[in-house]
Design brief:
By secondary structure, the protein is an alpha/beta fold. The protein has 12 helices and 20 strands. It is globular. The termini are far apart. Ligand LLP is lined by residues 55, 58, 76, 99, 155, 191, 194, 225-228, 268-272, 307, 311, 364-365.
């Protein structure tokens, strides 16, 4: 492993100083990096009628949503609450697509009333939507293309055993419902997984959609979902967006020719936009030697960053306060009263109690998957943008933990 970088900065602000000023545990986001990632995608598809619907679930902080809106993004949401957060951040309802899984029909009608786009992922809801609104409310259909794509089992969602989407085998049933209620299908959609590196997986999905699309005369767009891979380790390769565009654009143009009209091309990236821009700063509470290993216990746990425990995800760790230290091996663990190992046998510059460590790639599915387990408040969030570190979410307090509790008089 290479020596760690001295004076690590986030948007030109020294990371240590941010940690010292705002305290730990702390999520920090580099706003310019977020905008740059957005522009990388936009530029790769330049000249195409492209819409990027940032997958809000990756990181829903209102200031981040606002930043992306100003950069030109639309939004993909999975709950009515995410939709409302989007609207609080200034998105117009027409910019928002609701792509839920397994929600009640009432939630779908609430989204319809708000005027946001609807993406349907099961036949039962399609039938209900048709019965209630007929041709008055157009919708998109999420197709399950039966494709095995994505990093690991937990994040592969386009295969035949996945709960997501309507199986491509049920195309005749979809068409029967659409016809009987005169539903206007304005888009077809796939999302097959997260951490998809190869352009080939997107192309496989695209071909399934192109063929199905010929049955739907009212389409305005095709959505290829999100799932672009980012580099978690130095040796990792992210999805090559230019290579993907080089394959997908001609295929899409071909399809549009055959279809007889130019359609919009949509993506819903989450990780690609915010993962690398985010950092989790933690403080070392204790360095604990056992006969077998040396543990580094930090002031965080799977209540704040669950990806290592839930997906075996690798997050690079930087010792901000002792970058020149002698390299040693550690198990970096949290303060949760369960096994919450962030990293095993990780080589780090000597770690001392009080050091500030920083997890990289913490922007996506970090804060948004956090919890209050062990009655721990969630961290504060800071957005570095325009040469300044802005507090964009206050650290939770004990009052936040008890706010909705009711003590009963027995
Ligand atoms: N569109 C839909 C319909 C989705 O379900 C998702 C993610 C995305 C877009 C964005 O995917 P992305 O570009 O972020 O890979 N929590 C896991 C990833 C689960 C993603 C769930 N759906 C993780 O931390 O790896």
């Amino acid at each position: 492993m290479q020596r760690q970088q001295n004076n690590f900065s986030i948007g030109q602000q020294p990371a240590i100083r941010i940690g010292q000023e705002f305290g730990t545990p702390l999520y920090v986001y580099d706003g310019q990096k977020i905008v740059n990632q957005f522009n990388t995608l936009r530029n790769a598809f330049q000249g195409m009628p492209l819409r990027l619907k940032y997958a809000a679930k990756a990181l829903t902080n209102l200031s981040v949503l606002k930043l992306l809106r100003q950069a030109g993004s639309d939004l993909d949401v999975v709950s009515i609450e995410e939709a409302r957060l989007g609207m609080m951040a200034g998105y117009q309802p027409e910019q928002i697509m609701f792509t839920p899984s397994g929600v009640a029909f009432e939630e779908i009608t609430e989204a319809v009333e708000l005027g946001i786009g609807i993406n349907i992922d099961n036949l039962s809801m399609l039938e209900k939507l048709g019965r209630k609104y007929g041709s008055a409310v157009p919708c998109c259909i999420r197709i399950n293309p039966h494709i095995l794509a994505g990093g690991n089992e937990k994040i592969q969602v386009g295969h035949i055993n996945s709960k997501f989407g309507i199986s491509i085998d049920y195309l005749p049933e979809i068409l029967r419902i659409v016809k009987s209620h005169r539903i206007v299908i304005n888009g077809l959609h796939i999302h097959t997984g997260s951490d998809i590196k190869q352009a080939g997986a997107f192309m496989q999905g695209a071909n399934v959609l192109f063929e199905a699309a010929m049955q739907f005369p009212d389409l305005a767009f095709i959505s290829f979902g999100g799932g672009f891979k980012v580099a978690y380790r130095e040796a990792d390769h992210a999805t090559d967006i230019d290579a993907l565009a080089a394959e997908l654009v001609p295929a899409f143009r071909n399809f549009c020719n055959k279809y007889g009209r130019d359609l919009e091309i949509w993506f819903e990236p989450g990780k690609f936009i915010v993962s690398e821009a985010g950092y989790l700063l933690v403080r070392v509470n204790v360095v604990k030697q056992t006969p077998a290993v040396t543990f580094v216990g930090v002031d965080s746990g799977f209540n704040h960053l669950i990806r290592p425990m839930f997906y075996d995800a690798y997050h690079e760790i930087i010792n901000l306060t002792n970058p020149e230290g002698v390299l040693r091996k550690y198990n970096v663990v949290g303060y949760i009263c369960e096994t919450d190992t962030f990293a095993k046998d990780r080589q780090l510059p000597e770690v001392r109690e009080g050091d500030i460590l920083m997890f990289r790639n913490a922007g996506a599915y970090g804060f948004s998957m956090s919890s209050n387990y062990n009655s721990r408040p969630r961290p504060a969030e800071v957005l570095v943008y325009g040469g300044k570190a802005h507090l964009v979410r206050k650290r939770e307090t004990l009052e936040d933990l008890v706010r909705n509790q009711v003590i009963v008089d027995f």
